[in-house]
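Researcher: For the annotation table, I need structure tokens for Beta-lactamase family protein. Please keep the output clean. Sequence:
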Amino acid sequence: MSAFEQVALPTVPHAVVVTEADGTRLARGARAQSFPWASVTKLLTATATLVAVSRHLVDLDEPAGPEGSTVRHLLAHASGVGMDSPEPLSAPGRRRIYSNAGFEILARHVAEATGTDFADWLEQTVLVPLGLSSVVLEGSPAHGARGNAEDLAAFARELLDPQVLPPGVLAEATTVQFPGLTGVLPGFGRQDPNDWGLGFEIRGGKTPHWTGTRNSPATFGHFGQSGSFLWVDPQVHLAAVYLGAEPFGPWAADLWPRLSDAALSDLR
């Protein structure tokens, strides 16, 4: 039995998939069942925004959000707005303040720039091209998507071998933006620095963290309070996703790193 198979998983419905760019390598659980993605939704919203950037409909450095803030600031949680309020708590570029409100401002900005409702823009530019037929955006572009693990893994494969995004755009998106900013990683406390790309959290040297000790510092992705995650480790060309019915809690902070390490041990 592999290390991945030996890790005990929750008794509630769940699904986990480990994939390479050309297909699934390891999988367990209810891969066709739909679950909420919570803040993993931000990766979809970031990708749809970056498609608009690649089509020259949006510029990363154009004003958006509070005074002095840009699209780049909003994507990188560096605009200064609070978690759930559009009111700024800091000047742009000074602190990494994780913000749902910032992504909602961002989505409205993209809708204005493209002349398309954001949910429709996401569907046209990301969901349909990648064949993510189970995925729907219900409400907030910061945390309102749901879908199954098969489609989340397909989205992860796009991040391993981009087809919708130009590779150069994805490379910039997964490079640290506004280096050196400190901030709180929800569920894991203050991180110094709290590295982030353009919508993608970057592992760097963060500790504690929800990815494994075997994950490289270049690993990027996101986790959600619904009990969801997606990470991509470009150094080993692997990605992993998890969805389930149990909200994030201490169980996830314990399980996810062990599960990730087991998969990397089996496949590296």
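Researcher: And a one-line annotation?
Model: The radius of gyration is 17 Å.
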